Amino acid sequence: MATTNMASVLTHSSFPNNKEYGVGSFNDSILGINDAIPVIDYSLLTSDDPVQRSQAIQNLGKICIEYGFFAVTNHAIPDSVINGTMEALMRFFDLDDEKKRKYETSNSTDKIRWGIGDVHQVTREFFKIASHPQFHCPTDPDDLRDILQEYSKRLREVGIHLLRGISKSLGLEESYMEKAMDLESGYDFFTANDYPPRLSAPNSIGQFPHTDPGLLILLMQNVTGGLQIEHMGKWVNANLKPNCIIINLADHLEIITNGKYKSTVHRVIVNNEVRRVTFPLFMGPSLEAMVKPAQEFVDGNHPPAYRGMTYKDYLEANQHHVIEGKSCLKQIRL
Q1: What's the pTM value of the predicted model, to 2 decimals?
Q2: Which of 45, 61, 80, 189 is least enclosed, having the fewest CB within 10 Å?
Q3: Tell me, what's the pLDDT at 222?
Q4: Which residues, listed in sequence order, are joined to residue 194 by a DSSP beta bridge?
């Protein structure tokens, strides 16, 4: 079947659920467990000391196989940039709705989206922006663009170094992912989320269980908690300091490694007392990159487990737009 027709043949269920991902049901506890989250020390991963770096890469590979998620510490993004970003996001969300509604659009050419989700009693306000290769941003408040652009640049640099470490952990050359996925033209986007306190609500789920498209998801937030990650059939609370970066492996890393590294199933639990603002970067291949299981991960015992298709076709499957960031991983498994 031709790649250009692939997106049109995929069917889409309305929303994922816990049973679909093999994790209990919607009636299971939302409390999660407080197991330790694996940590990658970014300073060791980028160290000039070959022994330190080799050990960090080996640890990274082990974590990718056993967990599919981790926290990054010592990443050198200044607190002033992180705090300034969160403050600017809150100022945007606090604007009058009239100023934000100009971004409430379904036009396929728009690279900024705003909306309020209230589906199945799940409430959040959000905006999405394409950040690479071209950076897009709302015009209000006045300082939003400068701080988000600086934050985007620094966070993307962390993502590139992580993908170099991941390439090495797979026994490949350091620049493998950059070249194979044409990351110089990689399509990245942010989704800013504002989850208000829910002092009395019938549902504490902020987002239902799901995986995400792309290679890596790099998440920072203003408060501890809220994110739960599936591990060995249980929900693990990602209770980390706000200046840590939480990394989830995403769909296209699973595809290119033919399932060796898995995309992370996760969900959001709304805090009943504190406003939670998150700003994940969805770091992906070039829109024109053909993503399929790489030959290094395919042999007689490991046939291709996924259909190949361009990143653009994947994002546009099921009549979605590239800025929406919807997964269709289950639909392309062979």
Answers
A1: 0.88
A2: 80
A3: 86
A4: 125, 277
